[in-house]
Write a structure and sequence with these properties.
four-stranded antiparallel sheet, 10 helices, alpha/beta, binds adenosine-5'-triphosphate, globular, binds magnesium ion, Rossmann fold
């Protein structure tokens, strides 16, 4: 059963279309990675799914329900979470405050949920009063992941969670993504560290110039010579 089906969406900014009929799906327990060149429309795809842009054509189905045109807060309530490519933490707020911001729509307390996040990222507990802006890039990405997990989403949308990080930190972040997925959260992720991302993904897509270029299992993509040459750095 698919948690997400993006069906032939056309979307863009102003009068310009960036996505020219893109379709992807994510299974209920899957990690799916989208790769592709700069400017292909990968972030635009995630923004469309999260309701930050309304597609001009096509439909988006989440958990069996047509969510095309729904706004982000409605989608958060339905179980979607999104970690954008940039500016995904509040730098002047502490780790704990960042996590609390992730749970802003909860009426009751969020202590127990915060415990789950601290179990996933044990280093955060001691540093919970440190400002997010004072953390390393990798730590900030983990805070952003933690914040997104505060409302127990069914599907996590991640836009380049390991961008700009050192190789060992890239592996650590992707290991966390794998753990999050093992706990029952579906993941739709964009990654430039394509080899490492595809290695933990059930399936992947190549998006180029706003169109589906290729799709396959993670291993099919890793073993495809043309994908390797064009998109995986040889
Ligand atoms: N807010 C915006 N207004 C106008 N054009 C935009 C906006 N955001 C992105 N674009 C344009 O849309 C196209 C696709 O951008 P997008 O960010 O979706 O690509 P991407 O595949 O995520 O690229 P990258 O790998 O660099 O993150 C680019 O040509 C970009 O200049
Ligand atoms: Mg992008």
């Amino acid at each position: 059963m698919c948690i997400l089906e993006v069906q032939n969406i056309v979307a863009g900014y102003g009068r310009v279309n960036i996505l020219h009929g893109v379709s992807i799906s994510v299974g209920g327990t899957e990690i799916v990675t989208v790769i592709g060149p700069n400017g292909a429309g990968k972030s635009t795809l995630l923004r469309s799914v999260f309701g930050l842009i309304t597609p001009r054509e096509g439909r988006i189905i989440f958990n069996g329900e047509d969510i095309t045109g729904s706004n982000p807060s409605a989608l958060v309530a339905k179980g979607l979470a999104y970690v954008p490519q940039d500016k995904n933490v509040f730098p002047s707020l502490s780790i704990q405050e960042n996590l609390e911001m992730g749970a802003f729509i909860l009426k009751g307390g969020c202590r127990s949920r915060m415990e789950v996040i601290y179990e996933l990222f044990p280093w955060m507990r001691d540093k919970r009063h440190v400002k997010a802006g004072d953390l390393s890039g990798g730590q900030q990405q983990m805070v952003a992941l933690g914040r997104a997990l505060m409302l127990e989403p069914r599907l996590l949308l991640l836009d380049e969670p390991s961008a700009g990080l050192a190789p060992n930190m890239v592996s650590e972040i992707l290991e966390k993504v794998k753990q999050i997925n093992s706990a029952g959260v579906a993941v739709l992720m964009i990654e430039q560290n394509a080899r490492k991302a595809l290695a933990i993904s059930g399936r992947g897509y190549v998006l180029a110039m706003g169109r589906n270029e290729f799709e396959g299992t993670g291993s099919e993509m890793l073993n495809n010579p043309e994908i390797g040459r064009l998109y995986l750095g040889g």
